[in-house]
Specification:
The structure is a homodimer of 585-residue chains. With 585 residues, chain A is α+β, with helices and mostly antiparallel strands. Helices cover 57% and strands 11% of the residues of chain A. In chain A, strands 3, 4, 5, 6, 7, 10 and 11 form a seven-stranded mixed sheet that branches.
Chain lengths: 585, 585
């Protein structure tokens, strides 16, 4: 088995550990309930395990090619994508108005985890299309919406996001691509973009590019950036495909991983495009969908970690090497070795808490979009804003570290291609980098999110956690789990207050950022472990509940103490980092 | 510049921070002193920077091939190896009796760091040859020595170590290869070995395999293993090359990294070989050189981290993106960003302390081999034994983590091949796995080394560190560096005592192992930073001294506090790891 979907855990989360009743209310019209959710997740899991997971290792070996300017994707991808689209999966959470099923994003994110774990290169095709769809829904004219959305939501056409240029990555304000009005409402876009995922392919249909560029006489910096829609094929009035637009794939990036994903250098040469949203508000248009995109990337880290865990467990049960403690002279499965268990349980402690936190946060996101009460929407949206950088960065950091541990379980076999473990490491690495590096996420958390609601938002979130921890404690019998989490939360509160006070100095923000984000994530994971442990204690004595309690204790006993070290690093401040003159590096 | 050798740091260590007078005494006959060392290191650095570093990136892209059973190495390697051998580098620390220069291993290790940083795939060729030479020197008959050593030491012939089989990795006791006496003093060896670095190549000359196999009726397990020498070409009485031996390359491993290194699956089919050492003592023969090999691997991790640091610094000074704290509106080099500095200084805090500890330990190794007083030899050897697993595992763990941080400095550019950063990550990863995984190293430290001298060895080492820390403190002005290290050492002492007490239970050994090793390494690094800070304080006010003090403060302020988290994890013990039944994973 190449990939085992986390269906038992999803059932535990949706039906026991997390309250999903708000989703049933908000999506009553779509008939949403946990039964529907679990049925769909089972179906999606089957697609992931049976269709795309088997393409993962061969896709990595083959990679995409560029021949005569055309992208050749790896064998099987086009057919798998067609199957996925035919199943209606592309529009799972999309607007019913344009053919989507209008189901919760929560469900979409859980499907995303599985897609990413089974085959990240594949999962990026529908994922980026969804991002483009969201930007169009939120900002484009009705004409553009009616022309493009139905076929993007059906999966007939795909989407791509063209932001980065070689000199403008984190700092998009530096980008140079130009858009000149053609006089007919369209624009001529010229420039070169790099790192464009799904920039082109051979699936058929159309590829809809959203391109950031500058209008003539636009001001410098981010305020001069506008967003344009440029399709690979111009679309005729009857909706059929017309002339080839004047942009092309300059080359495919030679990447560390996700070899089956055509990451393109794109050359736009007076390409025809249409403005999406207001002139000069291009970054704003991109950022409206950023929360969703960043949660998606966080789930990529989680998904690959889960996939790597599954293979590592199978190997550890099978591989006979050395003697287990207390065992006889015969070689024993290495899953008996405490150090192997340490690695496996560490992965699990991160992935299961992460999945729980993802579900909780995704529900907030659905509430933020669909609740009838504006105050409820705003409250939920604020929490999503706060947690988004944490999920993007921490899940992908822990995800990468998890793939490295899972690879280590295989010894030398982990270093060779056949077993697939080294691919997980290479693929997982990108998620720490794209959609804003994890350093950028940490800056976002400390420099922006900690300032929201006059600095009160984070503390409101801490209050929420504290109340739930008290409830978990009241269940009884899990003080060894709840007590260290409550202590860690108290530390996090204090650290937060200190970090907020120092935030007047931007250097202090940067110095604290990454360690603070990791500390924040560990405490949030602790909250979720306390919640899951309380659920498991109340829920009887099934094997899954037994496992939850065991993993919770590994988390609080071995991993949560890292918060103390992170606190010390944060409190060390910026001065030691700034002491060394640049020429002494 | 692809690679900048750490010559300033080496000068600082050899002439100021570490006392090398013992080497000058022990190697007086060879005319060894710091001037000679630095001249040779400069030469070696030049070779690394000018000859092999430029082959690193193209070698990764090309990789080795197997054509008609013949290994084709990447363009430039054969010539580079010839240049290296002609320079006399292969025999730098080898026995003068067989043509070596008899210089300190300390010097060899420092050359190894540079070779590995510039081009790990290349560095493994001379490195493995040296390992084979050492095993032959220590255990083979005079006839074998006279036949093989001179040409291996001159670099005309290379060596390979054939240990692992697909079912026997960490647990070599499971290996199945057979060796049957031919009746003429030679043996017929049959079996398949995997992961054989430098198993074959197209450099010309001969490839001398040291193969572990079982004699007929040998007992099961490690006591039935013997070591054999099997050359690719049999050697005629006059020393010329004769018939091709009956072994062949089955395939090349498809690896995550070190693509320019031909890692072979080898098939021995009644291959002719000769016993090295006593029957049934094969593992013993291999382990006599293990300390040296494992130090070599540790230096690989260090070398790649240093190389990655060099490129990341150059990029960070050049890349304009965002505004530095307190800077104007213009895009500024990212080296001004505290979070970028955090990553760069973390790498430096590990690599410079590691290099210092490597020099210190390597001198102990030279003393252990060459001192006239047996008691001094034994004392030095014990310290080397203790520190070897620490250096192998911690340097390669920190080395890998360093390459990941250096890659992160590049953002998206770090993920594509051209910049070379993702190759560092892939290449560095192997060092955590081979020559005994880092988990095995940790077991060796906790399960075996902590027990040496009735458990006193580690505490003697702590006494030595404590005395030096007191001396450093007495220099004055660096209490903020020495005090936390002294506190961390006190914790390490206590933890060690507790771990030793729990070592009666092998499960506790395994549960503590990896976290304990990391804690031990951090404290040892702290010792070296205190020593270097004291040296810098005494040494005047050069820029290098200023940098040493700054990096020391980053180490003690931000990184050393991790020891507290590790202590908590260690004290959590084995029970939580063992709680979950294997079928619940």
């Amino acid at each position: 088995m190449d990939y085992t979907p986390p269906l038992d855990d999803l059932r535990f989360l949706l039906t026991q550990a997390i309250d999903t009743s708000e989703l049933s209310t908000l999506f009553a019209e779509q008939g949403f309930d946990n039964d529907l959710a679990l049925t769909l997740l089972e179906e999606a899991g089957k697609f992931c395990a049976e269709v795309i997971a088997p393409l993962n290792l061969p896709g990595d070996a083959t990679g995409c090619r560029l021949e005569d300017g055309k992208v050749i994707t790896v064998p099987g991808f086009a057919q798998a994508y067609a199957t996925y689209a035919e199943g209606g999966w592309c529009g799972l959470s999309a607007e019913p108005e344009y053919g989507g099923q209008g189901l919760p994003r929560t469900l979409q994110f859980l499907v995303d985890e599985m897609l990413s774990g089974a085959n990240l290169s594949f999962g990026l095709f529908p994922g980026l299309t969804r991002g483009a769809v969201e930007a169009i829904v939120a900002h484009a004219s009705d004409e553009l919406k009616n022309t493009y959305l139905p076929k993007m939501i059906s999966g007939e056409w795909t989407g791509a996001m063209a932001l980065t240029e070689s000199n403008a990555g984190t700092d998009l304000g530096l980008l140079r691509s130009k858009a000149v009005p053609n006089g007919d409402g369209s624009y001529a876009i010229t420039g070169t973009k790099i790192f464009i995922s799904s920039g082109d392919h051979d699936f058929g249909g159309n590829v809809i590019h959203l391109v950031l560029a500058r209008l003539p006489d636009a001001p410098e910096g981010v305020k001069g950036i506008s967003l344009f829609l440029a399709p690979k094929f111009l679309v005729n009035a009857d909706g059929s495909l017309g002339a080839r637009n004047s942009f092309s794939v300059g080359s495919l990036e030679h990447k560390m991983g996700i070899h089956a994903q055509p990451t393109c250098v794109m050359n736009y040469d007076n390409a025809t495009g249409w403005l999406v949203g207001e002139p000069g508000r291009g970054l704003n248009a991109m950022f409206t969908m950023m929360n969703a995109e960043r949660l998606f990337v966080g789930l990529q880290g989680l998904g690959i970690a889960h996939a790597a865990y599954g293979k590592a467990v199978a190997y550890a049960k099978d591989r006979l090497q050395g003697r287990a403690p207390g065992d006889s002279r015969a070689p024993a499965p290495i899953i008996g070795h405490p150090d192997v268990r340490r690695m496996l349980l560490t992965i699990r402690a991160f992935t299961e808490a992460g999945r729980a936190l993802a579900v909780w946060t995704a529900i907030r996101m659905d509430v933020a979009h669909h609740h009838t009460d504006a105050a409820e929407r705003a409250k939920a949206d604020a929490l999503v804003s706060l947690l988004t950088p944490v999920i993007k960065a921490a899940f992908t950091d822990f995800g990468f570290e998890s793939t490295v541990m899972a690879q280590q379980v295989f010894g030398g076999h982990g270093y060779v291609h056949e077993w697939g473990m080294e691919q997980f490491v290479r693929d997982a690495r990108i998620a720490q980098i794209y959609e804003g590096t994890n350093g950028v996420q940490a800056h976002d958390l400390v420099g922006r999110k900690l300032g929201l609601s006059n600095g009160k938002l984070a503390h409101e979130f801490f209050d929420l956690m504290a109340a739930e921890l008290a409830e978990a404690r009241a269940v009884g019998g899990i003080d060894d789990i709840t007590a260290p989490v409550e202590a860690a939360l108290a530390r996090l509160r204090d650290v937060t207050t200190r970090v907020q006070a120092r935030n007047v100095d931007i250097a202090e923000t940067g110095a604290a950022a990454c360690d603070y984000l990791r500390m924040f994530a560990l405490v949030s994971f602790g909250w979720m472990w306390a919640r899951m442990a309380a659920t498991a204690t109340k829920g009887g004595d099934t094997k899954l509940h037994e496992a939850k309690l065991a993993v919770a204790r590994v988390f609080t006993g071995r991993l949560l103490p890292q918060t103390a070290a992170l606190e010390a690093a944060i409190d060390n401040g910026a001065a030691p980092l700034l002491q060394l003159a640049a020429d002494l590096f």
